[in-house]
Amino acid sequence: MLRLCTDQDREDIYLIINDAAQAYKGIIPEDRYHEPYMTWDELLDEINQGVVFWGYEEDNQSLGVMGIQDKREVSLIRHAYVRTLQRKSGIGSKLLTHLMALTNKPILIGTWASADWAIRFYVKNGFHLVSPEEKNQLLRTYWNVPARQIETSVVLSSGGVGI
């Protein structure tokens, strides 16, 4: 079942993100990976900055989360994670499809350039990689990430976003 997450779901969001982010260990640049991958304070800051999380659950267990953030003329998909044991079961696609239906704006997604599984997932779901030049501009415009993360990331677009 898909549902809007509430304040009572914050611990589940935190646990799912940090469980699923184990996939990045040894894949993304070593200087960008730390444990926990997302601290409690970072999660609260994301929520305070307008990231709205949706969750997927079965049998009263939270299995996946994905956030959407309104950024003027675009929407950002943020923090898309599925518990390690439930990966490749369609949960991510269900969450993404639902969040895409919530907006009529172009959607942007940032992810690590070395996370080839994530890039394949978004391409399979209709997104395309933007050029490196456009990526740099989009990350500086719509995200608040350090230069090192801009350097090691990609941006995918649902279309209609130009610089």
UniProtKB/TrEMBL annotation:
InterPro entries: Acyl_CoA_acyltransferase, GNAT_dom. Pfam families: Acetyltransf_7. Residues 1-148 form the N-acetyltransferase domain. This is GNAT family N-acetyltransferase. It comes from Paenibacillus rhizolycopersici.
